[in-house]
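Lecture 7 notes: from sequence to structure.

We start with a single chain of 240 residues. Read the sequence below before looking at the structure.
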Amino acid sequence: MVVHLTNQKAFEEVMRARINGQKVYAETCPQYLLLEDSVYSKPDFEGAKYVCAPPIRKKADQDCLWKALANGQIQTVATDQCSFTMEQKALGKDDFTKIPGGLPGVQTRGTLLYTYGVRTGKITQEQMCRLLSENAAKLYGVYPNKGVIREGSDADIVVLAVGVPYTEGMTRLDMLENAATVVASITRAVMDSGFHGIFLVITNPVDAMTYLVKSISGLPDSKVMGTGTAGFCTPALFFG
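Now the structure, written as tokens:
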């Protein structure tokens, strides 16, 4: 497994090894699909945000990676979720070798792949599901318990709500209410289908979202419980 594949030359080595009969799998990360190395030229130490290993590459490398994803030549899109605050990054203000390397990614990986992959026509929805779930499950020996929706498999299901309405000038509360309406409809539908419970991962603020979902779905207080924050996102458990 070649992880964090970033550029065309590395991809060509993967393909050469396959041609020579080796079984090679490859993974890349969102930052290598969406950022170019011009980010390192940002003024006022802004470039430090993007210091990671391997570093961000060029637009031509992005194009190569997207094409490889579409052709099934890269098997997974993942992230090691290595995030730092700007205060921590500032440790290298006088010596770039001391800038802690890493970027966040787990909370936005699926959304980014859908927005810049599926919606732009670079990959299909089915390919996105394979890249984020099915292929990884197969590679690590947990398929078909994981990585597929079928009878007998674990019901680990992520519902991505797309098309949530947004208009110019909407407040944060407006957007929160729109998102809560979508989540509430999903929650209600799952409960009405006879499931015993549903576990949803919700972005902050959890208290407001939990309250809105509970109000819109009509579930009683005893059926809804929000858990503590996990930093980048907050899980909320809705009992049936």
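Residues 227-240 have pLDDT under 50 and may be disordered. Keep this in mind for problem set 3.
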